[in-house]
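Researcher: Please generate the 3D structure of the following complex. Treat every line as part of one assembly.
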Amino acid sequence: MKAVFFDFVGTLITKAGENITHQNIVKEILRRAGRTDLDYVKLWEEYEAESSAMFKELAGKPYVKIKDVDTKAMQKIAKRYGFTLPEDFWKISIAMHERYGELFPEVIETLKTLRRLGLHVGIITDSDNDYIEAHLKALGIYDLFDSITTSEDAGFYKPHERPFRLALEKADVEASEALYVGDNPLKDCVGAKNVGMMSVLFDPEASKREFWKNCDFVISNLSEIIDIVKGLNDG
Ligand code: CA
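Model: Done. Output below.
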């Protein structure tokens, strides 16, 4: 193995932190609109339902700005409850991600160890460029990556092969020399395998057993990647 690529949300940062982030976005929007009478948790749940339905439709499809999809999802909620979305909605969204994003505890040590082993360490993520850059900098891990490949760069969402191929080009490695680590068996494992990369499913709660067959490895802690890489390189 010469390169290890990571998914972002649910792999490097926790879903719990992401939920808190989104709740705080809704809370701030309601504060700005003077509608603190509304239950932000309830509205957050409705927003999540809208946006996840929209993103499900976009899997593998040509890229459209996540900013626009998120804004549209939030606008639906605003319309439903009769308030106006602030013009700087996306700015609020990025600021909240910077503030409430939460790394899994083993991330920094794992990334540093992979780098010490001489591997190319990269990200392949369904993200807008401004979002991922601000977020990684706020988490203090931006400099730990040799490459960052987004759907915005690639022009397609995972599991389309383009983001994976572009990342391999950036790292200048063959697919057979690369590992992809993600928490979504269908987008991450299938996407990686379609281009010939090995896939690692990060499934800390072992809640995705029915899909494990789509992945080459399953781990419950990111630090396990070190032994996987060493095992593949010694074998
Ligand atoms: Ca993910």
